[in-house]
Amino acid sequence: MPQLAIDKDFLSRYAKLDKRIQKAVDDALHKFAEVYYAGGHLEKVTDARDPRVRTLRITLNYRGVVVAQSEDTYLLVTVLPHDEAYAYIRSRRFSVNHALGVLEVRDESALESFTPALEELAAADPARLFDHISDADLIRLGVDAESLPIVRLLTSEAHLEAMAKMLPGGQYDALVALASGMTPEEAWAEVAKNLVEEVAPDHIDLDDLTAAIRRSPGQAVFVEGPEGLQSMLDAAFDLWRVFLHPLQRRIAYRPSFNGPAMVTGGAGTGKTVTALHRVAHLTSRYESGPPQVLLTTFTRTLDAALRSQVELLITDPAQRERVDVRNLDRVAYEVVSHECGAGPAFPNARDLEDLWDEAGAERGLSGAFLLAEWEQVILAQDLRTERAYVDAARRGRGSRLSVDQKRSVWRAVLEATKHMATANQWTFTQVAAAAAEILERTGDRRYEHVVVDEAQDLHPAKWRLIRALAAEGTDDLFIAGDPHQRIYDHRVSLASLGVHVRGRSRKLTVSYRSTQEILSWAVQVLGAAPATGLDDLEDSLDTYSSPLHGRRPTVRGFSERAAELDALAEQVRKWIDQGVEAGSIGIAGRSRKVTEAAAARLKEDAIDCGALATGPGVRVGTMHAMKGLEFRCVAVVGVEHGIVPHESQIADSIEDPTSHAHGLQRERNLLFVSCTRARDTLYVSYSGAPSPFLPAQ
Ligand SMILES: Nc1ncnc2c1ncn2[C@@H]1O[C@H](COP(=O)(O)OP(=O)(O)OP(=O)(O)O)[C@@H](O)[C@H]1O
After folding, report:
1. What is the value of pTM for the model shown?
2. Which of 379, 399, 509, 534 lies at a 20 to 30 A Cα distance from 7?
3. Containing domain of residue 386, as a range?
4. Which of 241, 484, 512, 630 to mutate to test the pocket of ligand 1 (most atoms within 8 A of CB)?
5. Which of 194, 221, 255 is a domain's end point?
6. What number is the average pLDDT over the span 576-589?
7. Cis bond leading into 616, ω under 30°?
């Protein structure tokens, strides 16, 4: 039975066609799929570079490009206007890489035109870029006999970069790794990250495109039956549903992990996508019963986004019923309400602080201090007795307390929590702690598997809840997070909470969201200190990169806010005039005051604005609310001295230097998170003196 595969390029071009042509593509493909084993509908092109390439007629003016391996494998490569399709066919050749085993395509005619220029440059410069690498090493890394003579001409990295779209991807990646100073062994490790499997060269059949396609799931995938073709076309607008990076695929579809597993990686590297595919993998094991998988995260807006992504990815309703998508506060609320027979109520922040002020008044302690001590020390460490509290370390909590002071704090906390209990008033952290305690006590394990997204910011009580939701064992927990995006004050060591991920932690390094220009700039905002991961190991972003390119971020300074916001309105208007949809523009500020002023200024220019996650119009909100979202264009405003970092959030450097350093890093991370929400364009502005976190221009 012949097989049909679709290339990522085909689907991404299809997604951009207008509706009428898309419909013609649908019809042509369905017709082709019915009869392709007879080779019908395909036309040979006499001057094709690659004799296996055919065209598929879509309309008078559009052609699909198809590679036919004998009569049994067809690969839909791309879809283009007639003349471009023929130019493509005259220039491209397909092959199987002798070292990597993957499918590759090269632009032979572009390479031929480029070679004389390289020869001229090489004649003038005896030193070559890869003089220090032997032919044998280049060949071992996948550079083939056709590329080798051209590669030997290269004198600079800039010329290598110019060949990015001409050379096969795997060969180009290996050369970039070598050019960056890696040894051949290190370059191989880099290249191997992109392979689903390493194959011995003598097991690679250079004529077997079918096997090569199977080894290239980030590039092309086989379609299963007519429904498969339709669901593939439906996924053209969300390519992540079909084309996973080999590393994403290896993690998401690994048959099982013998305990908690974790995926980390910089912003936009596809951690959420990997977690969603893991959910698809886990749910496919079950056919009935209550939901076996919980997909959770820490806010309501984020879980709404996850829910709609699950609906896109898991199309079978029965399989979808195997997963609950809900944030941890909600899960905790349900557990506690079930146990108590009534739902906990949550007072507003002001009423809560008043209640705690009252409990602290006689002892000279402020409500804000007591509340923080309760949540960040007592609930975080699950301290249940005065003795345990007196003995506990209070890392990151400012000046030391004497034993007597601690006793006094403990009594005030008891009094305040008693008042809260009488009035059925709770905090979210407290509900999580109570839910964890209930589940541990009753042994009620609600799920077989818990998948957690944006895990870097969870309070320890929420980790205890997660731990208690599934019994320890194979595939119990799957955790996705990035310690560089930690924006709240919860530094958690998973091991200390009984969650051991060592040896089962994997890191993604390719950004699918932002351009390299945005990443390189944003990484400088983070500063030099490495982050500590949830697994207690140091985490750096050294190998974090993007294959996407665009303009460098724009940074503009103004003498006052009014002028800054005038410029913002002008910038937003420009984006809209360029065709960017209002909902694809995100604007963030450190405080509500800044974002409210920005929204008011945009409204003066009749630019519609709404909340970050829901709209309508241009999305405006605080930096904290940007977490997990993404936009084509992002403007971060008010990035100035005194606001970023926000002074009220930073502990005194003399009284508590550790807490001070953590606070500063958190503020850096917050700016990093906001900036890395941008896919194509990033605009940053300030009034007065710039924030010390902004990279020097
Ligand atoms: N394999 C893929 N193919 C195509 N697009 C992808 C792929 N993986 C991720 N993406 C896209 O890249 C963007 C970022 O992905 P995702 O949100 O999963 O990253 P993340 O690591 O969770 O990001 P962050 O930590 O910044 O929230 C999304 O638009 C997603 O659809």
Report:
1. 0.88
2. 509
3. 349-425
4. 512
5. 194
6. 95
7. yes
